[in-house]
Write a structure and sequence with these properties.
The structure holds two protein chains of two kinds. Chain A has one domain. Helix content of chain A is 88%, strand content 0%. The longest helix of chain A is centred in the C-terminal third of the chain and has 60 residues. Classes of the chains: A mainly alpha, B mainly alpha.
């Protein structure tokens, strides 16, 4: 499925460089989302999407080919821009999703702690008033 | 959609499925090791670059039919290699404070991919001529 989507993207983008860049970034984005949500997803589904779909969508070999062709044509700007954009954007997307997920988890945990504390205080108050009632 | 286009799509899809399965096997076998370095993904990427170099030469020299070329290059090799897992592993290694391992992995994969593609192209051209 990923390979077919990548092939289909070739008809949308004029340049094969843009096609590969788009597919790599999209594949990384989906992989990062799967990775962060892995606790809630069945391992078979996780493998299907991460190894199957994302792996088929993103490609390293075609990236190597484009880089070598740019080098052979003496087009050093394309070579470096392509390498920097692919590595930078993909690593950036993964890191960004990771940071967002981390801050979400922190907020959720803080909320949970507050709720537990509130329940605990409520329980303690109820116990206290029970004791008072029993003493009389 | 005419018959030719359907054949191309089928070639890419079948090749892609096969490449993904081979990479899944390789990374399952080698990714979890003592040094916690993603050797399996590295091997899959290098293998795919070498193969793609050879196939690129084959297509250029007219050894392969267009369909076989698509099946092998856009399908098999492109799916055997992966950029998403590579980017994820680089970021995760860097987050574990293993900056040198992360930078080394990225550089080695990048340089290795270039060299192996070139080698594959060269070797196949020499063998075919």
């Amino acid at each position: 499925m990923g390979a077919l989507l990548r092939y289909g993207a070739g008809f949308v983008f004029d340049s094969p460089l843009l096609q590969v860049l788009f597919c790599n970034v999209l594949g990384t984005l989906i992989l990062a989302l799967i990775f962060e949500a892995s606790a809630h997803i069945h391992s078979h589904v996780k493998r299907l999407v991460s190894t199957g779909f994302c792996g088929g969508l993103s490609t390293f070999a075609t990236f190597s080919k484009d880089s070598v062709l740019a080098l052979q044509a003496g087009d050093y700007f394309t070579f470096w821009a392509n390498a920097a954009l692919n590595f930078g954007l993909c690593a950036g997307v993964f890191l960004l999703v990771n940071i967002i997920a981390d801050s979400y988890r922190q907020e959720r945990d803080a909320l949970r702690r507050r709720r537990v504390k509130m329940l605990f205080n409520k329980h303690a108050r109820a116990k206290k008033s029970d004791k008072k009632g029993g003493g009389k | 959609m005419n018959a030719d286009a359907l054949l191309y799509v089928a070639s890419v899809g079948l090749g892609g499925g096969l490449g993904s399965v081979v990479r899944a096997i390789i990374s399952e076998r080698f990714d979890a090791n003592a040094h916690n370095l993603p050797c399996g993904t590295f091997v899959a990427n290098m293998l795919a670059s070498l193969l793609l170099g050879a196939i690129y030469a084959g297509v250029r020299l007219g050894v392969f039919h267009a369909c076989a070329g698509l099946f092998l290059s856009a399908g098999f090799c492109a799916s055997l290699s992966t950029f998403s897992t590579l980017a994820g592993q680089i970021v995760l290694l860097a987050k574990q404070k293993r900056r040198r391992a992360s930078a080394g992995y990225a550089l080695l994969t990048f340089a290795g991919g270039l060299i192996l593609f070139y080698l594959g192209d060269l070797l196949f051209s020499m063998l075919a001529l």
